[in-house]
Write a structure and sequence with these properties.
Shape: globular
Low-confidence stretches: none
Strand order of the largest sheet: 1-2-12-3-13-16-14-15
Radius of gyration: 20 Å
Order of helices and strands: HHEEEEEEEEHEEEHEHEEHEHEEH
Largest sheet: 8 strands, mixed
CATH superfamily of the largest domain: Zn peptidases
Number of domains: 2
Structural class: alpha+beta
CATH architecture of the largest domain: 3-Layer(aba) Sandwich
Mean pLDDT: 93
Number of strands: 17
Helix content: 10-25%
CATH topology of the largest domain: Aminopeptidase
CATH class of the largest domain: Alpha Beta
Number of helices: 8
């Protein structure tokens, strides 16, 4: 699955501009399922299996990644921007970006040697930063960039010690798992949703869930792991190498208790997500229509929403196996 994930993660697809990712996924899945694309850009695919479950099962992974959107220009040719999704300023400073698909730039602000006192000890706010593309004037910058153009952080896809390092692992990992399920899993029918605009408010999944009207849903995600130096275990959220992470509660969802315990007792490498924080498409899906029984199957990722997230191949494999297990568990219920 690593090569598939590499091809997905190196595509650019910020919220509302997922077309490159969508086109790639459609090409991958079209021989294996029936699919349609809705007005927002969600891909809704039906994979026919050997048996039909008594109640409809939906799996979701979002296509979009965090990024930047150009809002204005300074007189001397720098680009002002707003973030698309939650990005910490520390993940932006002096990072290379690609604007409008082809223009190289770097995010910068006031040089540290020109700051003093309290200013030198604090990170600047995101709206105090700018993108430098080398233009000498507003007119020169606007000759190749316009307001509303997107920017993404430049990143290589690399491997080390069974770890993958790349941008956009949230949630191209989920997309890779879902593509593999469509190609290889055939025990039961299921509906697969590759959703848009998760990073700016769970929008695509809300629309798709209303359309699909499932009884149960499995949300496949990349989630925060803080198992790094000087962070106590109870604050680490989840750990790389310990398997897929399943949530009992976050800021958007209280998860189905039966499905949560079924996952923990599956015999697959699984760990609880040890934090009631954040959220994912479950927050929209489980409230659709008259309610949807929901579980989140996540892959731990260090440094999420940065140009260099880190995930473990064994956790990705465990998440894939857990998704298969949970489809069968729900279908046999």
């Amino acid at each position: 699955m690593t090569e598939l994930l590499k091809r997905l993660a190196t595509l650019d697809g910020t919220s509302g501009d997922e077309s490159a990712v969508k086109d790639f996924i459609v090409k991958e899945i079209s021989p294996y399922c029936e699919y349609e694309t809705d007005a927002l850009g969600n891909i809704i695919a039906f994979k026919r299996g050997n048996k039909s479950p008594k109640k409809k099962i939906m799996l979701d992974a979002h296509m979009d990644e965090v990024g930047l959107i150009i809002t204005s220009f300074t007189d001397d040719g720098f680009l002002r921007f707003k973030t698309i999704g939650g990005i910490n300023t520390s993940a932006l400073m002096f990072k290379r970006v690609k604007v409008g698909g082809s223009i190289n730039g770097i995010i910068s602000g006031k040089p540290i040697h020109l700051t003093s006192g309290d200013e030198s000890k604090k990170l600047p706010k995101a709206d105090e930063l700018y993108i430098d593309i080398g233009a000498a004037s507003k007119e020169e910058a606007r000759s190749c960039v316009i307001e509303g153009d997107r920017a993404v952080m430049v990143s290589d896809f690399t491997e080390n010690y069974d770890k993958i390092i790349s941008k956009a692992l949230d949630d191209r990992i989920g997309c890779a798992i879902l593509i593999k399920l469509i190609k290889e899993y055939d025990d039961y029918d299921f509906t697969a949703v590759f959703s848009v605009q998760e990073e700016i408010g769970l929008r695509g999944a809300r629309v798709a869930a209303f359309n699909v009207d499932p009884y149960a849903a499995i949300i496949i995600e990349g989630t925060t792991a803080a198992d790094i130096a000087d962070v106590p275990e109870d604050k680490s959220v989840c750990s790389l190498g310990d398997g897929a992470a399943v949530s009992f509660m976050d800021k958007a969802t209280v998860y189905d208790r039966e499905y949560y315990y079924a996952a923990l007792n599956s015999g697959i490498a699984v760990q609880p997500k040890r934090a009631v924080a954040g959220g994912n498409n479950s927050g929209a899906v489980h409230l659709s229509r008259d309610g949807v029984r929901t579980i989140a199957v996540s892959v731990p990722c260090r440094y999420i929403h940065s140009s260099s997230s880190v995930a473990d191949k064994h956790d990705i494999a465990a998440a894939y196996e857990l998704c298969k297990y949970m489809i069968n568990y729900i279908a046999d219920d």
